[in-house]
Amino acid sequence: MKLDKIQGLFGAFGLALLLVACQPIASIHQPTASKSQAGQRVQCPSPRPQMCTRQYDPVCAVTSDGLRSTQGNACSACSNAAIVAYIAGECVSAD
Q1: Could you tell me the pLDDT band of residue 32, with boundaries at 50, 70 and 90?
Q2: Which residue ranges make up each domain of the chain?
Q3: pTM of this structure
Q4: What is the pLDDT of residue 1?
Q5: What is the DSSP string of the chain?
């Protein structure tokens, strides 16, 4: 009889743990402050990133001379010391 109660408690605890574990984590679904809005210029952080992921999320990188070039993502753009800022999205030609 006592074993049945212990098994019932463990079963209830396991079910509760399973339900809690399946809930989404709010911080993962919130946009990060470092993400730029369309057209908004974002300064590269200091210190510069040393390692970046290789996902393609293009940005328009801006050098201190004002030259622009499309880079694969913000991290890879800012890892280049010549880049001072970036704008979300590919660079638009001035044609």
Answers
A1: very low
A2: 2-88
A3: 0.58
A4: 67
A5: -HHHHHHHHHHHHHHHHHHHHTSPPHHHHSPPTTSPPTT-EEEPPSSPPS--------EEEEETTS-EEEES-HHHHHTSTTEEEEEESPPPP--
